[in-house]
Automatic annotation (TrEMBL):
Superkingdom of source: Eukaryota
Pfam family, one: Jagunal
InterPro entries hit by this protein: Jagunal
Family named by the database record: Belongs to the jagunal family.
Sorted UniProt keywords: Endoplasmic reticulum, Membrane, Transmembrane, Transmembrane helix
Organism lineage string: Eukaryota, Metazoa, Ecdysozoa, Arthropoda, Hexapoda
Cellular compartments annotated: Endoplasmic reticulum membrane
Protein name: Uncharacterized protein
Length: 47
């Protein structure tokens, strides 16, 4: 019984870490995409 609860805790912790990493990565990716889109918009503006 002890091992099962420990396993559940381990799995939960891994999911938590995975979620944190994904949010950090997606924020980073969105940041890069945002810059990319801004650069494209600047290129398309006629002088």
């Amino acid at each position: 019984a002890m091992n099962k609860s420990r396993l559940k805790y381990c799995i939960f912790f891994h999911y938590l870490l995975f979620f944190v990493m994904m949010t950090k990565l997606s924020a980073d990716i969105l940041d890069h995409l945002d810059i990319f889109i801004l650069e494209i918009e600047e290129l398309q503006i006629p002088q």
